Description:
Blueprint: E1 16-17, E2 30-32, E3 41-42, H1 44-48, E4 73-76, E5 81-85, E6 91-96, H2 99-103, E7 109-115, E8 118-124, E9 130-136, E10 141-148, E11 151-157, E12 160-169, E13 172-182, E14 188-195, E15 207-208, H3 219-223, E16 230-234, E17 237-241, E18 247-252, E19 256-261, E20 265-271, E21 277-284, E22 289-295, E23 304-309, E24 312-319, E25 327-334, E26 339-346, E27 362-365, E28 368-374, E29 381-387, E30 393-398, E31 410-420, E32 427-438, H4 446-465, H5 474-483, E33 488-500, E34 504-514, E35 522-531, E36 536-537, H6 540-543, H7 548-565, H8 567-571, H9 578-588, E37 596-598, E38 602-607, E39 620-625
Parallel strand pairs: 32-33
Antiparallel strand pairs: 1-7, 2-10, 3-6, 4-5, 5-6, 7-8, 8-9, 9-10, 11-12, 12-13, 13-14, 15-16, 16-17, 17-18, 19-20, 20-21, 21-22, 23-24, 24-25, 25-26, 27-28, 28-29, 29-30, 31-32, 33-34, 34-35, 35-36, 37-38, 38-39
Amino acid sequence: xxxxxxxxxxxxxxxxxxxxxxxxxxxxxxxxxxxxxxxxxxxxxxxxxxxxxxxxxxxxxxxxxxxxxxxxxxxxxxxxxxxxxxxxxxxxxxxxxxxxxxxxxxxxxxxxxxxxxxxxxxxxxxxxxxxxxxxxxxxxxxxxxxxxxxxxxxxxxxxxxxxxxxxxxxxxxxxxxxxxxxxxxxxxxxxxxxxxxxxxxxxxxxxxxxxxxxxxxxxxxxxxxxxxxxxxxxxxxxxxxxxxxxxxxxxxxxxxxxxxxxxxxxxxxxxxxxxxxxxxxxxxxxxxxxxxxxxxxxxxxxxxxxxxxxxxxxxxxxxxxxxxxxxxxxxxxxxxxxxxxxxxxxxxxxxxxxxxxxxxxxxxxxxxxxxxxxxxxxxxxxxxxxxxxxxxxxxxxxxxxxxxxxxxxxxxxxxxxxxxxxxxxxxxxxxxxxxxxxxxxxxxxxxxxxxxxxxxxxxxxxxxxxxxxxxxxxxxxxxxxxxxxxxxxxxxxxxxxxxxxxxxxxxxxxxxxxxxxxxxxxxxxxxxxxxxxxxxxxxxxxxxxxxxxxxxxxxxxxxxxxxxxxxxxxxxxxxxxxxxxxxxxxxxxxxxxxxxxxxxxxxxxxxxxxxxxxxxxxxxxxxxxxxxxxxx
Length: 632
């Protein structure tokens, strides 16, 4: 399946990354924030009265969070929020826009977990390892806990912190569990509580499952020896071991993946030799029985397991509704009675840069489900609580008054289409396009700008509706639609709107093209810049009046800085050093066909995948201030 350009929160794991910059004190241990934080607001009562577009974000307030609520939180990556919940699903507290907190930690800050008044943030240090920091948002201090080569996940528990680290051995990824406890002198004692036993097994590809009943790593269960059995996967099938690494029994000879497990059940999916999903199974440990609960043949896309609680397993079922984006249904399956119940449905909403799919949050805590969802108009987020045992929904609570920033300026529209193969009738092409229209009073000459934006959108929609499916041959049909289930796609999402300098406005889109049978698709950006004094579009070549050689040199020098800052773009740069990269950049930079994105006081010169780096890195965007190139 194709990758998306949008930032989508991984369901249940609740982990996200941000890139930022910052320094720390020489002792590498603690530092207090001595500057006013303009971006962080804590306390839901403050949020209700806060206009997200106002200049009143310089208020920094804290409230006391009961420990019982410390683990009830949902991270909303799209709006940069951590939302704390009461047991009934109501909002207890919020941290709004935590970006500045990460900026103080380091250049590659990554939010790993949320604890009692604390955020746990990892950051790659100069030694190519990960430094784990504990940020106390009551006093603005952070403490460096430890540094490991690779950190997998972090889970705080009371005054302890459980950390899973990993390393590569042969074909296996070997894990180790650490328990960090305060040492009484502003530091932490590091104790290894569980080591990966699979490295001693003859099956070199065998790995034990890290994930249990909430699709999250449960460090406490390992550390406290709460599990009698640990499921493992490998070339010879799925097997149970005890925590000491002794073989107990084989569940199945089929290859598969552990989806979730408890002391009673193992939920796993199986796949064939071509890695096609074949079904989702439940294995009853005590009864030593196995059955299929979701057969692949009954679904276009195999359901995704997102949680296990008691006798209930929770899955997301992807439902075809005849549009580009399918609906996602949260289904509760009763393992004891072989019954299922639909709990909630998420549909795509134009302008959210997501495809629904609980992309903004899903979590099982104690006896409750919490979902962070969008309303139909896409303007506000809501938390829905659902009691697992009683089956009674909680009331729905508004999570924030913050709206998407673009709604200050206008609205997003969308069109999609599905074109059938003329030979077999299966889908041969699916397309989705978003467009933007300004409110009449949002900017000067909005009517002229809207007319041009509408014309561009109509052209793209027309191209989408006239995709060349008539050129499909019998061989194309056999390969793409009968042997496999491939089809072409083209999707374009509205990204953002922002002011540029004094009298320009920028409208941004992200796109992704995929051709049937390809290993991956290709991303693209559109950025339309308008002069609000005239209502006309302005290109970069019209805005920039300097020489092309000067532009080449400036972007090349900036690229060298990014090369050093990102450690050769995470090691994916094709050039052997920064100077070699600069020469490639000089060859690529072109005024007439510049691929740029415009921001308030700078622009980025964008390079497509494979221009400078491996495809996996994505686009490379080099920031340059307008002052540096004489644009005012």
